Amino acid sequence: MMQDLYCRQFDLQEQQVRVICRDVGGSFGIKVHAYPDDFATVALSLMLGRPVKFVADRLESFVSDIHAREHRIHGRIVASKAGEILAFEIDDLTGIGPFSMFPRTSGIEGNQVVTLTGGPYKHRAYRARLQVVFQNKVPTCQYRGVGHPIACAVTEALVDGMAGRLGLDPIVFRQHNVIPDNAYPATGASGIKLEVLSHEACLREAQRLCDYDTLRAEQAALRQQGVHRGIGVATLIELTNPSAAFYGVGGARIASQDGATLRLEPSGVLTVMSSVGEQGQGAEAIFAQIAADAVGVAMDRVRVVTGDTDATPYGGGTWASRGAGIGGEAVLQAGRVLRDNILAVAEAILKRDRTGLRLRRGVVIDEASGQALLDLAELGRIAYFRSDTLPASCTPELMVTRHYAQRDYPFIFTNGVQVSHVEVDVDTGFVKLLRHWAVEDCGRVINPMLVDEQMRGAIVQGIGGALFEECLYDEGGTLSNGNMADYLVPMAGEMPDIVIGHVQSPTRSSQLGAKGAGEAGTAGAPAAVMNAINDALAPFGVRVSSQPITPEKILRALGRI
Predict the structure, then answer these.
(1) CATH of region 71-186+198-242+408-557
(2) Which residue among 250, 399, 439, 512 has the highest number of C-beta atoms inside a 10 angstrom radius?
(3) How far is CA 465 from CA 143, 159, 227, 426, 526, in A?
(4) What is the average pLDDT score of the chain?
(5) Angstrom distance (rounded) from CA 451 to CA 525
(6) Pair 439, 206: CB distance under 8 Å
(7) Where are the domains of the chain?
(8) Choice among 218-232, 259-273, 468-482 with the minimum mean pLDDT
(9) CATH code linked to domain 2-64
(10) How far apart (Å, rounded) are the C-alpha atoms in residues 83 and 174?
(11) Do domains 71-186+198-242+408-557 and 255-404 have the same CATH topology?
(12) What is the chain's Cα-based Rg?
């Protein structure tokens, strides 16, 4: 995207612009935008004819990089006395700063909120209104889980409130109202297209994982002793693997497809070049896994190259939890073609029918007996340096490029359930996080450890938004806490143990079957924590809904200050 923007803004051609972005830290959406500083730096370099380096310190970053999630939402829910959710209604007022961010626009977060609210449930009536306003503040745009944390928090607060009004257990109420697992494909009330989800299975697994009944019994006993613990539940959906329709209809030149090039080296090593960059998600490890499995080599014989427009295929990069689902599918398709091409060369070298040959850990073997027949290093030597020994009809094609774009749905939705366990000190307003559980259905799990840690990191980020992180402005619109001393972020000492479980419902839109996972933790954690706090405060007949939920807000709700 940045290469294309530099070309268009400065009247350059692609071969004149090289963007290198190797192994940078987490982006979380902030780095997916085009900032004025980017173009000013390039312009100065072109004018001066020499390299120009731009560095932003923490304060500059705070007041120039995008912010997110400033919403004032009024919401309503309607349910029958029998406990059936009938309708949701929301009115969302969101601020976006002084101008809309280029090229993705700042209206998307609010659009996501009104699209996703009520998403997990089978109600049919829904009404939403969105107003986007300009402010004398830092620009606001896409940040990890765009719109999801707000939509989930609003939805799940309303659902919890209705469950309380009806005298129903929050999980029982959800089990009765989520879209059944056997009802897919389905269309939500807002018009979202849902391929295959597993709300019922995720709720059952979450209930088992946290030993829900025991938690409730313990909660009741402790309340008798003046200890106020709460259990919060959040059911969520997350959009991943976007199709071309997402940006295509708006005219933004952001690729929906990704590409992968796989090349067998003469040494038998496999080089994978992917258009998806590495920003800490573990994308390179996943691509190595997929390529090794698809071709038939050991993972330590796979080299992955990302983050260089001169070396990698064209693609959309990493955003919207699409790295594994879109980029990984391109790697898989290229790998399978390369494997077939390798076996075609092996057939010529060995003079044996390829139908009886297989590739296993870098060796061509006889499928029936398992006998090793030809090492890939020897195959590479012959293919590259002694092709004169091969039949004239055999031209080795040991470099394959494939692109993939998801076209079956606007998005491939994933889903999950989170449960938060907290203790609220009603004298100080402080919240102690005791434990957090998450059950995630991200389709086929390629690397369980990576998925678990993506979820844990995202949950911590979501908890940060729920309890700590807030941009404070003075009356003149000046950011007053733009530093890491005054802007609170979650630290290890405050975080609870986070237990992760999985349900797998592979998408049929790809051979890989993978959906995204990186944003689901952020999407559900604020709702689960807020519901847990309100559950702890239930004996006092008060609720808090403004995030971050600070001790001051809790004490004000309790009438202590």
Answers:
(1) 3.30.365.10
(2) 439
(3) 12, 21, 25, 21, 7
(4) 95
(5) 16
(6) yes
(7) 2-64, 71-186+198-242+408-557, 255-404
(8) 468-482
(9) 3.30.365.10
(10) 10
(11) yes
(12) 26
Provide the H-helix boundaries in 2-57: 2-10, 36-48
Distance in angstroms (rounded) separating the CA atoms of residues 401 and 211: 48
Residue 6's CB: how many other CB atoms inside 10 A? 21
CA 402 to chain centre: 23
- Total count of residues recorded for the chain: 561
Amino acid at 60: E
CA 108, CA 117: separation in Å to the nearest integer? 14
CB-based contacts of 45, cutoff 8 Å, min separation 6: 51, 52
State phi, psi for 84 to the nearest 5 degrees: -105, 120
CB neighbour burial string for 250-281, b if at least 16 within 10 angstroms, e if fewer:
eeeebbbbbbbbbbbbbebbbbbbbbbbbbbb
**In the prediction, which pLDDT does 22 show?**
82
Give the E-state strand segments of 27-103 in sequence order. 71-79, 85-95
Answer whether 95's CB lies under 8 Å from 137's CB.
Answer: yes
Cα–Cα distance between 103 and 85 in angstroms, integer? 38
Question: Does the domain made of 255-404 have the CATH classification 3.40.50.720?
Answer: no
Contact 407, 477 (CB under 8 A): no
Tell me: the pLDDT tens digits for 290-303?
999 999 999 999 99
Give the pLDDT of residue 223: 97
Give the residue among 413, 411, 501, 321 at the shortest CA–CA distance from 119: 413
Contact 228, 219 (CB under 8 A): no
Tell me the CB-side half-sphere exposure of residue 470, using CA atoms within 13 A: 11
- Place 120 in a pLDDT band, splitting at 50, 70 and 90: very high
Distance (Å, rounded) from C-alpha 549 to C-alpha 162? Answer: 21
Beta bridge partners of 49: none
